[in-house]
Amino acid sequence: ETGVTQSPTHLIKTRGQQVTLRCSSQSGHNTVSWYQQALGQGPQFIFQYYREEENGRGNFPPRFSGLQFPNYSSELNVNALELDDSALYLCASSFDSQLTEAFFGQGTRLTVV
Amino acid sequence: QKEVEQDPGPLSVPEGAIVSLNCTYSNSAFQYFMWYRQYSRKGPELLMYTYSSGNKEDGRFTAQVDKSSKYISLFIRDSQPSDSATYLCAMIDQAGTALIFGKGTTLSVSS
């Protein structure tokens, strides 16, 4: 098991609602990245936070937003949920954006109905 | 054309077989090539990574990169039922901030 924990593990929301997903980084890691993994697909990069600042963003609309806190834990917020937002949301933590040393959490399974 | 292409399978082999998993990519600027294993309902776990071209071996696993063909491979020797999982290839983007994944290949090893 990695030291990266995500909560909740499962979530069901209604279209149009808002959701907040949480990620606790591995000890000593100052970088958190979020990915969306639709069923049968590889993970897709949403954004990365390094020392509380957004450090890169993938091709996701502004209704996907994030935060990183001083203890380097992180939140992913999604507004105006759509059915296509149903996916496994993964966070990965690393030190100084070293992606070769990134560890993934177990993910949050979001279902939008 | 997607940046990283990977045949999703599924791939079924008997225990003890040699497994070959492959990806192609389109961006010649990629330098880091990763292989992850993902069990059902779990996050991806890094198996190994290679920088630039060449081979890398770790136990039963060997990763190969051919930059001239933009083709990477993962070989699993003496496959075990515990190897049954989805295998994802990934590359680090040019900005160094994102992993670009293939779709993943689902492998089933039967005893």
Largest sheet of chain A: 7 strands, mixed
Query: What's the helical proportion of residues of chain A?
Result: under 10%
Structural class of chain B: mainly beta
Category by helix and strand content of chain A: mainly beta
Largest sheet of chain B: 6 strands, mixed
What is the chain-wise order of helices and strands of chain A? EEEEEEEEEEE
The coarse overall form of chain A would be: globular
Low-confidence stretches of chain A: none
Identify the overall geometry of chain B: globular
Which two chains form the greatest contact, residue counts included? A-B, 26 and 26 residues
Instruction: Flag low-confidence runs of chain B.
Output: none
What's the Cα radius of gyration of chain A? 13 Å
The percentage helix of chain B is under 10%
Indicate the proportion of strand residues of chain A: over 45%
Write the layout of secondary structure elements.
The complex is a heterodimer of chains A (113) and B (111).
Chain A: E1 5-7, E2 10-13, E3 19-24, E4 31-37, E5 44-50, E6 53-57, E7 64-68, E8 74-78, E9 87-94, E10 103-104, E11 108-112
Parallel strand pairs in A: 2-11
Antiparallel strand pairs in A: 1-3, 3-8, 4-5, 4-9, 5-6, 7-8, 9-10, 9-11
Chain B: E1 4-6, E2 11-14, E3 19-25, E4 32-38, E5 45-51, E6 54-58, E7 61-66, E8 71-76, E9 85-92, E10 99-101, E11 105-110
Parallel strand pairs in B: 2-11
Antiparallel strand pairs in B: 1-3, 3-8, 4-5, 4-9, 6-7, 7-8, 9-10, 9-11
